[in-house]
Amino acid sequence: MLDVEEKPRRAFVLAVQLPRVSDDEFAGSLIELRQLARTLGVEVVGTLTQKRNSFDGAAYLGTGKRTELKTLVGPPEARAAELLLVDHELSPSQARTLEEEIGCDVLDRTQVILEIFHHHARSRAARAQVEIVRLQYLAPRLRESGKGKDRQRGGIGGKGAGESSVELDRRKIRDRIAELTIELTAMETERRTQRARRTANDGLHRVALVGYTNAGKSTWMRALTGSEVYVADKLFATLDTTVRPLIPEGVPRVLVSDTVGFIKNLPHGLVASFKSTLDEALEASLLLHVVDASDPGFERQLDVTHDVLDEIGAGKVPRLLVFNKIDLVADAPVMRDQLLARWPGAQVLSARSPEDLITLRTALMEHFSRELVEDELRVAWSQQRLRGEIFATCQVLSERADDDAAFFRVRASPEVLARLKTLLV
Q1: What's the rounded Cα separation, in Å, for the pair 313 and 317?
Q2: Within a 10 A sphere around the Cβ of 357, how many other Cβ atoms?
Q3: What's the CATH fold of domain 9-116?
Q4: Top-level class of domain 203-369
Q5: CB–CB of 218/268 below 8 Å?
């Protein structure tokens, strides 16, 4: 793995277009890879593409294109770039052949994403999850690295060939993955226990922001909750889950959580490893699916998000579609009409508009208010300590009193009413 943020690097982007890939899809994928490079702190100085029926088994690009690339990169004493970024996942042998022929380090798409996750993960759980996937990616490539191929460690008593350096490294990797997995299991058990305790006792509704990376989820998170979450025009700017209350707070009280962004061809290992983060989507009462309306490829991004949500089992969770960044669209009124005609019930907004913020907050509160039921609570004078909780978790419609108790006419969720009645018995 390369610590590319230590020293800014220049790179050529390489991509092969297969017959089944449309021109728009191919162009969108290249744009995405350049954005990933920018997130990683790499300057893209050139792009080389090729149309082929299949990838070259030896080195991804065909012989002629490799010769052209070598000319573009230049001689060792005057390199135009130090890095090659490939828009597909390479086999270890393909990566090694490219490195040897061109004289540059090679990162395929999977490795670029892994490096970004490695640099941006902050919490203990996220860092452990990323390390597991990086180690799983590295293990089969050790043989190709040339490290210690011919060195042997003696067997027991100094006899026999023993284990090669590569075999020892692989064993260390397996041991480290096992250690991290045990740590993650313990953290996940504790997190689930805490989440179950909160869910059972707080009567809160939960909204999870989901969508393609860089669609504006963190901007909406900041706008809806007033939290100082990190916002940047980069892919995967945030990886760790943030949970904050919707402000101004109302009844029912709503918690909003941000989740890791989705991307085309996100390595399966990362989807699995970040399932604990995506569990916020699985356990939410409502998914706020944020889409960048200004991106020409937003429909492809919609499909990617739907696929990942289905993969983690959140396909049936209710969702509200929010087309964001409408302020960046050239003919916004026409685009708004087209989007609403195709996706009735969606919100077409800009996270930077105060009016649109009020619109979305109102839509969220109306969604959860539909679940509220009306009832009366009798609170004996000896139980008046519960008044604060009633006003915090219910809409109090009226209040009256007699000699024995106070009576509150309220609207609240069935779960909150059931819990309060249990306390009032």
Answers
A1: 9
A2: 16
A3: Rossmann fold (3.40.50)
A4: alpha beta
A5: no
